[in-house]
Predict the 3D structure of the following.
Amino acid sequence: MNKEKRIYSGASPSEVEADLYELVNFQEQGLPMEILTRLIQERLVPHLVRYDRPEFQSLYNFMPEKGALLGAAVALRHNQGVTNWQVSPGGVMLEELCTRAMCGLFGLPANSDATFMYCGTYANQQAVYLALHRHAEQMGFDLSSRGIRGFPHPDRLRVVVSEEAHFSLRHAVRMLGLGEECMIRIPVDEDYGMDVTEIPRQLKKGGQARDIFCVVSTAGTTSTGTIEPIQALAELCKREEAWLHVDGAYGLAFSLLPELSRRFTGLESADSLTWDPHKQFGVPIPSSLLFVRRAADLKRMAIYGEYFNRKDDPEPNPGLKSPPSTRPLSALPLVTTVRYQGLAKLRERLRAPLTAIRKLSEQLEAEADIEVCHTPQTGILCLRMKPPHVPATELDSLQRFIYDHIKQEGRRSISMTRLADRTVLRLVALSPSVTFEALKETISDIRALAGRFSSRPV
Ligand SMILES: Cc1ncc(COP(=O)(O)O)c(C=O)c1O
């Protein structure tokens, strides 16, 4: 196969290991730059995945956009930390201004605020912590000192999520010492988003007293990109005096598209929101934001250190809004990509892959050998091959066979997941380079592989 056509070398784990070994063969003497550069170019780069290729249709990775690269290069060259004023006055002020501007862009109230986080996983974790903190305050104690022991019945604490919520929320409740048993998982509807009509039944289940302190709506689920209802959950939160968190790690960006804004009705009621600019805004990983509707909420995170973060310091201090003490200048690439492209072009970039996925889905609806699993709301389409010659009992194996072959060939990249207990193939269009034509080519490949399955069942 022509190596140029591949999105990565296609080498096996042992081949990659053999190539990379020389890089970690640490010696007393250093290497000249040219040799080191050649080693990296020859040994490592061929095994890196080319996210800019139209055939990359599997996950949320992205090549940095040109404007973002400018900011990233400056941030890297100056290696600025943005913990506090002393470490980087320019970096700190830029982060402050950027978070305020982002709150405005997403239509959050004047008194909202945000903090840059390493990734969506940590942003979700902090959101659940803030929710628990406020709940403790409602009960009259300080969570940061008493911990969950302060609750009269810690075993009753509950977080409501959908069955399709991202696993980072499981991490969150584990890390908070609540355990996954505290999660009430609401079943999903035919579009694989939370079925809000199920909520009353699920809350009554088991009959025990429950103390719901946090409800999560995933605005753009990981498997299908479905934007779960927000308004109905806002009402539930009001009744239960619970915190509403919107996990928009993937999907929040789409609220910037007027044609999708209806799906985000209720967003203004969210207490907190997660968003990952590193998903489709073309900024280098890692870059995530946690927004809060009331700036004061982030004050719950502050821990002062006498050697550099003093309570009476008059300057802004992003390091008090979330745990990392050493923090990168993630605001700069985000600022430069937005300034370089402009909002109109950014919206076009967001829209193009959605249009491609929707067109593909509409076309595939008419094809007998393919089951389209949901109506795509954003840039993800899950489907299941079901050629007539493969019995229903072997359909899961067929999807796995297709996925494994495509992965091994290295010409394109698709993903695989489980929906309603069935294995499905998943196509992700994140960057505008993933066009309708590129998606159609993938379908042709998938079809050809499905044909081969009949002669070589797994
Ligand atoms: C809905 C959702 N939430 C949270 C996350 C976690 O984000 P990160 O990968 O930045 O930790 C993801 C990641 O794909 C996601 O899809």
